[in-house]
Amino acid sequence: MAKRQNPAEAETPVAETPEETAARLKQGKGVPTPSRREQEAARKRPLVPTDRKEAARAARAKQAEAREKARIGMAAGDDRYLTARDRGPQRRYVRDYVDARFSIGEFLIPVMLIVIVLTFLPWPAMQVYGLFALWGFFLIAVIDCFVLGFLVRRRVGEKFGTTKVERGLRWYAAMRALQLRVMRLPKPQVKRGQYPS
């Protein structure tokens, strides 16, 4: 007759990593189901890490990696990383249309910087001419934004249907057109003249 083994003398199960547990569970039939004790031992984690500094360093590195991944994804126009303002096929279409177009408003910031420099010159006539030029340029940029809004609304209506046009697309297009091309986020995905179909 076989001698029964004392439970106290039995080997305690070795805790396996979650990866090993997942790999073992994926094998399917032909492998014995792990006991409850084995599963609980595999899930046990210390509440407080033994080396807090190392744990904090690892957490910071993980957060930095996630932020960098999100930044690259947003710059590339990946929908998973875009804000709610930039998400959706209509917004993508508007971005591509604005980026393919030459907009007067994108040069507004450089013109403002030139006018600021002119205000420091000792000639009052240059300052006055600079201010008039700035206001004239600003007016032309606003007119250009109105034209852009009309074109965007019409093009989106033709592509997606007039009843399904999202609200705020004109404003979205105008705000993107007033930014320098290199400063736009998400980054332009099309070249100039490469209008979306």
UniProtKB/TrEMBL annotation:
| Pfam families (alphabetical) | DUF3043 (PF11241)
Q: Where is the composition biased (Low complexity)?
A: 7-16
State which residue ranges cross the membrane: 102-123, 129-152
Q: What keywords tag this UniProt record?
A: Membrane, Transmembrane, Transmembrane helix
| Top-level taxon in the UniProt lineage | Bacteria
Q: Which InterPro entries match?
A: DUF3043 (IPR021403)
Q: Where is the composition biased (Basic and acidic residues)?
A: 50-60
Record region (Disordered) = 1-60
Q: What is this protein called?
A: DUF3043 domain-containing protein
- Species of the source: Leifsonia virtsii
